[in-house]
């Protein structure tokens, strides 16, 4: 019975870790999107094509 509890606990721990990694992945995507937009805006502002 202890093995079953340990197995369930281990499963829950892995499940929480996977959920946390998914959240981290989504946050990294959002960060990268923001960073790309900021870099594009900075490039647009310094572009010599504006003259």
Describe this structure in words.
This protein has 51 residues and is mainly alpha-helical. The chain contains one helix and no strands. The protein has one helix at 2-45. The longest helix has 44 residues, at 2-45. It is rod-shaped and about 70 Å long. The protein starts with a helix and ends in a 6-residue tail after the last helix. The model has no long low-confidence stretch (mean pLDDT 86).
Features:
single chain, 51 residues, mainly alpha, 1 helix, rod-shaped
Q: What's this, in brief?
A:
This protein has one helix at 2-45. With 51 residues, the protein is mainly α.
Measured between the Cα atoms of the first and last residue, the distance is 76 Å
- From N to C, what is the helix and strand string? H
Report the sheet with the most strands, covering strand number, pairing sense and barrel closure.
none
Helix segment count? 1
Shape: rod-shaped
What structural class is derived from the secondary structure elements?
A: mainly alpha
Region (Disordered): 30-51
Biased composition (Acidic residues): 41-51
Biased composition (Basic and acidic residues): 30-40
């Amino acid at each position: 019975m202890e093995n079953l509890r340990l197995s369930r606990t281990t499963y829950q721990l892995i499940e929480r870790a996977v959920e946390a990694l998914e959240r981290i992945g989504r946050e990294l995507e959002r960060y990268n999107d923001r960073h790309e937009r900021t870099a594009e805006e900075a490039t647009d502002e310094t572009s010599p094509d504006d003259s």
